[in-house]
């Protein structure tokens, strides 16, 4: 696909996330009207890999409602969140104000982050849990990340494993509960078009823009994009847990997250890279 076609599909995604946001804000899934615990979205290994954040400049790319951004700020970071959805950024600012945390938010496409943040550099860039699948070009993304980091700065990606994405969000019509490969594990075949009339949260149907496009990215593609941008991979973890029960037969673990009783397969990965 051409860059113009990529831009058109990303604009469709932006409109869809603007339309999703009101549903997400009032959902039980996010629970924003309850006692907010933003750290529930983090695995213990994330904090171990991120290390000390107090006094550090931390950028959360593709932050959506900014729940994880708040957790970074609670850990003492000078936190900045960036998202392409104006509705999401507005909701994130409201949530930060209610939480009493000093977080800065910017609205921009991730590919335009350097200009949108006026060349500011960061000690840590954090991203993930459903972010990279909305980016058609990982080489361009990795170049942006490298330009956002100070020398010695760290990127931390915590993403849904490409195996999880290949399994698809739910069984198709007439299918049973078996785990079946429904999409490519590897990228290169173009975007997957989804009907996002209903999102991954509870709540009513999305009103308006319901077209959504996702791109598959294997772990090798992520690693190669980062190393080609001059970054060194320091750690790669694979985890069999998710922060919510994607399938009904998942069981809760001592961490409060969820895993399949069998088979034991990777559902999430954490990747630490250094500029």
Keywords:
275 residues, transferase, alpha/beta, two-stranded antiparallel sheet, 8 helices, globular, 22% strand, methyltransferase, SAM-dependent_MTases_sf, Methyltransf_25, 11 strands, 7-stranded mixed sheet, Class I SAM-dependent methyltransferase
Q: How would you characterize the overall build of this protein?
A:
This protein is 30% helix and 22% strand. It has eight helices and eleven strands. A hairpin with a 5-residue loop joins strand 9 and strand 10. The longest helix has 23 residues, at 3-25.
Summarize the structure.
The longest helix has 23 residues, at 3-25. It contains 8 helices and 11 strands.
Structural class: alpha/beta
The coarse overall form would be globular
How is the largest sheet built, in terms of strand order?
A: 3-2-1-4-5-11-8
Order of helices and strands: HHEHEHEHEHEHEEHEEEE
The oligomerization state is single chain
Mean pLDDT: 94
| Major β-sheet profile | 7 strands, mixed
The overall strand count is 11
Helix percentage: 25-40%
Low-confidence runs: none
| Number of helices, counting only DSSP H or I runs of 4 residues or more | 8
Give Rg in angstroms: 18 Å
Determine the N-to-C terminus distance: 30 Å
The proportion of strand residues reads 15-25%
Pfam families: Methyltransf_25
Protein name: Class I SAM-dependent methyltransferase
InterPro entries: Methyltransf_25 (IPR041698), SAM-dependent_MTases_sf (IPR029063)
Organism: Streptomyces musisoli
